[in-house]
Amino acid sequence: MKFNFSVLIMIVISSCLFLPLLRASDHGINQDPIVKKFSYETLSFYQKKLFDEFLTEEIPAGASITSILTDHTSIRTKTRLAEALLFRNHEGDKGQAAIILQWILANQNQDEQSKYYGIWKTSISNDLLDQNWREFIGCDLIIIRHHYRSLLPAEIIGSIEKGLIHAAKGALIRNVSAGYTNISIMSAFLMEYVGTEFKIDELKNAGLTKARDIYTLYQKHHTWSEYNSPTYYGVALIGLALWRELSFSSEMHDMGLYLEKEFWHEITTFYNPRLKNMAGPYFRGYGMDMKKYFAIVGIWIALALDDERSAPLPSGDGPKYGEMSNLATIFHLGISIPREDMTKLTTFTKSKYITRIIPNEYKGDSLKIVTATIHEDWMMGGLQGNRRIWNQIKAGTIHWLSEEGDIAWLLVPGDGKTNVVVDKNKMTILKADQNLTSFELCIYAKHIHADRFSRGIWSLPGMQLKIKTGLPLPRVVEVPTQMLQSEYALSEQFPYLIKLVFEVPPIWKSDKAMLQIRPKKTKL
Prior knowledge:
Helix 5 crosses helix 7 (154-174), helix 6 (133-148) packs across helix 8 (181-197) and helix 10 runs antiparallel to helix 11. The protein starts with a helix and ends with a strand. It folds into two domains: 31-344, Glycosyltransferase, CATH 1.50.10; 350-521. It has 524 residues and is an alpha+beta fold. The protein has an eight-stranded antiparallel beta sheet with strand order 5-6-7-8-9-12-16-15, covered by helices on one side. It has a five-stranded antiparallel beta sheet with strand order 10-11-17-14-13, with no helix packed on it. Strands 1-4 form a two-stranded antiparallel sheet. Helices cover 38% and strands 19% of the residues.
C-alpha cells in the first residue's frame, strides 16, 4: 500500500479551517463553565482523603519537619507541602510551613551572571539545574504570598518577594518559546505578575508579550506544540488557572479563560471515560495507563468529578506519586470546566475520528500530523512527521479494555524511525528514517507470551489484531520491569512487556506500508 501524504495533509488542513466556527457554536465556548472553589473545610470526603494522604506521605507520623528536609528530597514538592499546610492551617501548620519556606528560599541561585540565575535547586544533592524550576517554584510562591502574606512572618514574605524578582528576571533572560507549552504559560504569568506587582515594566511587558505569543500560536491550528500529554496538559491547566485567578492584566485574564476552555475541550475529545485514559499519540508521556501512574491531567479529572470510582488515578500510592503535590496548587486556584466537557468525562457518546495539525519544533516536520480513532472499548492514535528520538514520545498507541478491567495496549516508540497513520479502522506504520533497518512495537496485556505473534492474527485478551505486512516474522523479546523506565519512559510497574522487532530491507520505500494493524475487539 502506498500513502499520499500531500492528500492527507490537505484533508487535515481543510478540516481545521472550520475549527473556530465549530468551537464557538458546538463546544460550549459561550456557556457558563462549572466553577469549583475549595477550602480545606469544604473539601468532599474523597478530595480530603487525597489531600490528607499526600500530607501523611510527606510528613509520616512521628516525623519532625526538619527531618524531612533532606538533601535528596524534591524542593518543588516541599514548596507545595508548605502551600498545603497553609491551606489546611491546623495548629502548628503555619510554623511548619515557615520552616519549609526558609529552607526553600535559601536554595535559589541569585548570581545574575549565571545561566541558571533565578532557579531553585531541584534538590540539595544531585541538583539537576533545571531552568523550569523558576516557574514551578516561583508560581507556587506567588500563590503562598497572595493568600498568606498576613499569616507569615514579614521576613519570609520579604524573602519570597526577592526570590520572585530573581526568578522573573531569569525567566526574561531565558525567554522560553511559546512552543514550550507548559513552561511558557507559567513563564508569561510569572513575569506579568512580578512585573506588575513590583513595578518592573520590562518584566510586565515581557509577560504580556509572551501571553499574546502563546495565544497567537494556538490560533494558527487550534493545537498546542506540547501536544496530548497526560502530565503536561495538567501543568498547562495550572498555568492558565493562574492567568484566570491572579494575573493583573484583563487581557491576559480573558485569554486565559478562553485557552483554559480550549484545553478542557481537547482533553475530553481524546479522553475515553470507559478506559479512563486519553488516546494517543503522546508528545510527552510518562506511562501508558493513567490508572497505574499519577498523571496531572488525571488529578484534575479526579477533583472535577469528585468520584473515586470514575477517577483516572491509581488507588493509594503508586508511580509518579509526587505529582499529587499539585493538589495544593489546584485547590488554591479552583476548577473552571465547560459543562459539556464535564459530561464527556463520565459519558461515552459516540465513536469518533480525529485529525490535528501540530506546530512543533521537535526534529522533523515543523507541522506534525496526529490522527486518532476512539471507540467505547478501544482506541488508537498515530503521529507522523517526528524525527526526534525521545522515549517520552509515544508515536503510535492502541488501548483496549482487557480482562478483569485491565487496560492492555500497543506502543510504537518515539524513536524517530516511523510515521504512524491511523484511519477509522487500522493503523499503518511507514518508514520515516531512510537509514532504518528495523523498527519495534511493545505490547502489554495480562498473560501474553511469545507464541501469540507468529501468525497473521495476534489473538490477545479482549482483542484480535489482524496483521498485514511484507516483512519477515518479528523477533519476540520479553522486556523486564527494570528496563521500562529507561527504555520507554514507562513509570508503571508492568511485570514485563513483549517487544516485537521487525527487520526492514534497505530498499524499502517510505510510501509503502511496513505494517498494518487492524484491531477487532473481542469478548472477554
